[in-house]
Design goal:
This protein is of the alpha+beta class. It is 36% helix and 14% strand. The chain folds into two domains: 2-79, Arc Repressor Mutant, subunit A; 84-134, Dna Ligase, domain 1. It has helices at residues 2-10, 17-28, 35-43, 51-63, 129-134; strands spanning 68-70, 78-80, 87-91, 97-100, 123-126. A hairpin with a 5-residue loop joins strand 3 (87-91) and strand 4. The mean pLDDT is 90.
Length: 135
């Protein structure tokens, strides 16, 4: 938890139990969970957590660059502890999202002179190896 405390301190944020718990959860569960999944998992051991608390905490952590979020399907927002540029793969069969380690084909700023790029998203949609084996 001390590592998360340091992260919060570096960003000028107060260390709260909720922020520490959600950072730890996302670091431990690198499965790109939705707020609903985080809520269901956390509320069993911490009944005082509300969905609103989780939404607000996610927004604060994202705004300070401690986590990222992604939306691949419809409007479902998924949370990602990994904030560096990387690709994602969404499996239509199991609805899981995986980090994919590929060389970045485009770096921010390359070929886009005069623009200020804040985010870049790249993802693939298909069927993961585990689901392919089942078929």
């Amino acid at each position: 938890m001390q590592f998360y405390q340091q992260q919060l301190k570096e960003k000028g944020l107060k260390t709260t139990y909720q922020r520490l718990k959600i950072l730890d959860y996302l670091d431990t569960h690198r499965t790109h969970p939705s707020v609903e999944i985080i809520y269901e998992d956390i509320k069993s051991e911490n009944p005082s957590f509300s969905k609103t608390t989780i939404y607000n905490t996610i927004e604060t952590l994202k705004a300070h660059g401690l986590i990222s979020t992604l939306t691949i399907t419809g409007s479902e927002v998924r949370c990602d502890y990994k904030t560096d540029m990387h690709h994602h793969f969404y499996c239509r069969s199991c609805n899981r999202i995986f980090d994919v380690d590929l060389e970045q084909p485009l770096q921010p700023g390359s070929g886009l002179q005069g623009y200020a790029i804040d985010e870049m998203h790249s993802y693939f949609i298909g069927t993961c190896p585990a689901c392919l084996k089942k078929k």
